[in-house]
């Protein structure tokens, strides 16, 4: 079918073979030849725009994508507390008790590593977004966690002083590759990555895992040699647990005799209550809600930030509204949309007559007017906004003038600033050129003779304008509106200065979370929602008005 | 051809020069980027310790970056990009704690890194309570307090903080910080909560509700500020009858600009401002920063800073050395938030409380503002 239609158009220039596919002059099928030519053309075009494309990808799309990705990213919990998260997965959040000793033992090891790597306070800040008090919980715990398990250390050492010797642990846990590399390490560059001895992970799984972390931290954080550092108390804690769990020590293992002796003795060791240790750091560890939050937010990806952006929260029982006195984002989104619409409408009302004047005045006056439109456009945004502050305030120029004429009483001056009115007035002024310029360029192309023709056919001034002129200027209104609306919806600095509390936008909250609260996940979620809203409006606009009707000029 | 040769020659020369240069000064970098707040405060730092330091070490080139307001966010971004371009950053204590928590600032052993006090005390004792974090080296003590228009309060100028909530005696607008900090404490204090109980009460839902209820009584009369310079401006314009801001701002509005403004010291909120060193500096840069830090935070230098701005030195040993204003010649000691006459009723910002409750109270505060 396609071939036939092509054929009729290409008949004259191409040799045809009625029985087969159409062929080009060189005998290849026309379709292939055409495709090849097009492909070549496309490749050349792509090659020409490649620098711009790469530039946009690297400096625009990639950073934005990465920032938006933070709105769901939540690896910090699993990365900082890997053992705890694994054990905690079995804990029933509906249970009336806090998790058992296995979780606390895992937490002791995770917190030891996290504290040494200084990650624990970062995790505390992250979880503090969900519940107050978790930040200090982790900070307090970090200060004491290195003592957890000290009782076992002392008992191992009392049993055999060789347990105090770092070399003992190196003999048991270090693999030959690391031993060789470490022996020749000359103090420059990074230390060789620690590797465990083969098979040790099966014999003493907990101890091997924490010892590997110990060796890594000693090397990277302190730049020391693990062969010269006494292991953490957490290592002895793990060793005690492994031995008690019935580890089978192979006879050919290093220090097998020591381990066997320790295993026998461990059965009668005085035990340490790890849970009690943690509760002594902060009683919140005995609080079930703390554990529910850790478990709820232990997944590597979370919808928590997006829910927060909609005044919802993720609880172990599912999604729920936030407390009424914390709901702020839905209000702000709605306000942002309503006020942006108001600004767009005022821009149309003010910009339309100016656009008409620009397009219809003799060029001398039109040029002067154009400069007046552009002059504020070239002035710094901050200067213009600050000027509005001087004009609008209670003791400002506008109020003084109104009091002087007697329109308002001196003790009842108009509140024009630090509220929505202030934001709408100053933003309308600031965004007005973005409305006037597209309007002007469209109106410039409407021949004045149309209006004259309408009138000569008996139309009134109004009918001529409304039925003939206005429909032709709609593409200009469309282009201006979409520009002004999209700019307004993401505006930040003007609402911040003149908006007070009732005239600020969602972008002010995004800025707050980026620069002050450091809750980048929430900022990213709010930003993503804003982006989707803008794209939604763009799509709706395209469906209703048609994006082809938008004209910025010509 | 000639161009190529010239280029090659220049490159070779530059490389050689850099090589020699780097070798002879391998111990310390000669460039140092200091981040501060700009304005009068940065000027006081320039005059009190940066210029004297450069006079001693003429090879050092100091670059200023006025980004302290966004320091936390920018340092985090630098850390993620693994490209730390700042050497020394001036931040408020709360931000210092935050940066330390995030692992973005370096922990510093003050006794090892800083000079002992002139009176022989160790650095730890000399700085005392101002050492609020392991990463934070305090320079100054400032306070958030209230200023008022002397010509708008009638014959009875306010003497205590609760005047802020007394709209009958002092009608007119107030300017308050657009953050919960200080406002919540003052609200509870003026609602009858004992000063020692305030943070315990504020940690409970009922206490927060109580504070918001008190703030509700002046909500309609309040202009909320985000920058410390706004309140003096609003007072000067007669837009507000009273407002909270930093004491140094009020000092310059009163003493330097001669505005009809008076100030309260009652229930001032003491806070600290100081240095943090970003984590991950190269050895040469770190050596230079630590050398500067030792000089810039010694007893005399901190006392000198008070000549240029009305903030108290963080070291106890500097207090007796505080002299007169560099231009006005007035005694500065009596304008310090730590002066015994002023510090009769002070709050020391409870950083532990605020780092835990900041997010929570902030979202409640913003929701309250939006209602």
UniProtKB/TrEMBL annotation, chain B:
A Pfam entry, by short name: SBP_bac_8
Name of the protein: Putative spermidine/putrescine transport system substrate-binding protein
UniProt KW keywords: Signal
Span of the signal peptide: 1-22
């Amino acid at each position: 079918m396609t071939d036939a239609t092509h054929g009729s158009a290409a008949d004259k220039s191409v040799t045809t073979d009625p029985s087969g596919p159409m062929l080009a002059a060189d005998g290849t099928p026309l379709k292939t030849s055409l495709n090849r030519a097009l492909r070549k053309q496309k490749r050349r075009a792509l090659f020409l725009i490649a620098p711009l494309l790469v530039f946009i990808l690297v400096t625009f799309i990639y950073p934005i994508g990465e920032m938006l990705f933070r709105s769901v990213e939540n690896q910090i919990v699993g990365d900082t507390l890997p053992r705890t998260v694994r054990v905690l997965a079995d804990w029933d959040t509906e249970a009336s008790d806090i998790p058992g000793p296995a979780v606390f033992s895992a937490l002791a090891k995770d917190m030891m590593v996290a504290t040494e790597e200084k990650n624990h306070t970062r995790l505390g800040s992250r979880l503090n977004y969900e519940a107050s008090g978790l930040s200090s919980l982790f900070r307090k715990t970090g200060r004491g966690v290195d003592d957890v398990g000290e009782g076992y250390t002392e008992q191992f050492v009392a049993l055999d002083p060789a347990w105090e010797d770092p070399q003992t642990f190196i003999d048991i846990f270090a693999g030959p590759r690391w031993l060789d590399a470490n022996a020749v390490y000359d103090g420059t560059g990074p230390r060789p990555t620690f590797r465990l001895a083969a098979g040790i992970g099966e014999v003493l799984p907990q101890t091997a895992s924490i010892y590997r972390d110990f060796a890594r931290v000693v090397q990277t954080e302190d730049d020391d040699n693990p062969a010269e550092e006494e292991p953490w108390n957490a290592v002895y804690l793990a060793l005690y647990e492994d031995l008690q769990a019935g580890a089978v020590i192979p006879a050919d293992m290093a220090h097998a005799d020591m381990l066997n002796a320790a295993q026998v003795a461990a059965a009668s060791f005085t035990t340490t209550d790890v849970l009690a240790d943690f509760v002594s750091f902060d009683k919140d560890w005995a609080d079930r809600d703390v554990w529910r939050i850790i478990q709820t937010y232990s997944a590597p990806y979370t919808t928590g930030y997006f829910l927060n952006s909609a005044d919802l929260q993720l609880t172990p029982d599912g999604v729920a509204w936030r407390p009424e006195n914390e709901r702020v984002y839905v209000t702000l989104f709605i306000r942002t949309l309503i006020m942006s619409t108001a600004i767009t409408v005022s821009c149309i009302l003010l910009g339309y007559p100016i656009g008409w004047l620009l397009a219809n005045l003799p060029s001398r006056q039109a040029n002067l007017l154009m400069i007046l439109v552009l002059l504020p456009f070239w002035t710094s945004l901050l200067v213009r906004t600050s000027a509005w502050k001087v004009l609008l305030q209670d003791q400002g120029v506008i109020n003084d003038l109104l009091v002087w004429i007697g329109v308002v009483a001196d003790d009842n001056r108009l509140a024009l600033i630090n509220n929505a009115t202030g934001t709408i007035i100053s933003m309308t002024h600031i965004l007005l050129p973005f409305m006037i310029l597209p309007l002007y360029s469209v109106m410039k192309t409407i021949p004045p003779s149309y209006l004259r023709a309408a009138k000569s056919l008996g139309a009134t001034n109004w009918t001529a304008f409304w039925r003939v002129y206005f429909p032709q200027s709609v593409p200009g209104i469309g282009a201006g509106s979409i520009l002004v609306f999209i700019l307004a919806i993401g505006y930040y600095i003007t609402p911040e200065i003149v908006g007070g509390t009732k005239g600020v936008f969602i972008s002010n909250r995004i800025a707050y979370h980026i620069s002050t609260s450091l809750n980048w996940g929430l900022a990213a979620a709010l930003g993503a929602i804003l982006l989707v809203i803008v794209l939604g409006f763009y799509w709706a606009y395209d469906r209703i008005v048609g994006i082809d009707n938008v004209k910025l000029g010509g | 051809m000639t161009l190529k040769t010239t280029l090659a020659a220049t490159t070779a020369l530059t490389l050689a020069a850099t090589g020699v240069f780097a070798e002879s000064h391998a111990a310390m970098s000669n460039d140092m980027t200091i981040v501060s707040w700009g304005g009068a405060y940065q000027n006081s730092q320039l005059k009190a310790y940066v210029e004297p330091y450069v006079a001693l070490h003429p090879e050092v080139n100091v670059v200023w970056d006025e980004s302290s307001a966004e320091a936390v966010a920018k340092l985090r971004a630098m850390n993620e990009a693994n490209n730390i371009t700042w050497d020394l950053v001036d931040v408020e204590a709360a931000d210092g704690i935050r940066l330390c928590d995030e692992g973005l600032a370096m922990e510093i052993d003050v006794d090892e890194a800083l000079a002992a006090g002139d009176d022989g005390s160790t650095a730890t004792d000399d700085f005392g309570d101002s050492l609020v974090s392991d990463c934070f080296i305090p320079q100054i003590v400032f306070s958030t307090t209230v200023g008022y228009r002397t010509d708008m309060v009638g014959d009875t100028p306010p003497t205590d903080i609760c005047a802020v909530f007394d709209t009958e005696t002092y009608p007119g607008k107030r300017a308050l910080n657009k953050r919960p900090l200080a406002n919540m404490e003052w609200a509870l204090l003026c609602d009858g909560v004992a000063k020692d109980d305030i943070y315990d009460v504020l940690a409970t839902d009922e206490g927060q509700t109580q504070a918001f209820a008190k703030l509700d009584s002046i909500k309609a009369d309040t202009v909320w500020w985000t920058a410390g310079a706004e309140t003096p401006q609003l007072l000067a314009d007669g837009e507000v009858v009273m407002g909270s801001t930093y004491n140094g701002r009020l000092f310059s509005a009163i003493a330097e600009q001669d505005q009809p403004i008076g100030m309260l010291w009652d229930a001032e909120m003491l806070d600290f401002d100081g240095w943090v060193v970003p984590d991950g500096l190269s050895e040469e840069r770190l050596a230079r920063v630590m050398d500067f830090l030792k000089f810039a935070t010694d007893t005399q230098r901190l006392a000198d800073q008070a000549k240029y701005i009305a903030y108290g030195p963080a070291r106890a040993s500097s207090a007796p050395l505080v002299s007169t204003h560099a231009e006005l010649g007035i005694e500065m000691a009596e304008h310090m938030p730590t002066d015994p006459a002023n510090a009769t009723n002070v709050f020391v910002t409870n950083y532990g409380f605020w780092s835990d409750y900041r997010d929570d109270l902030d979202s409640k505060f913003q929701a309250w503002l939006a209602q």
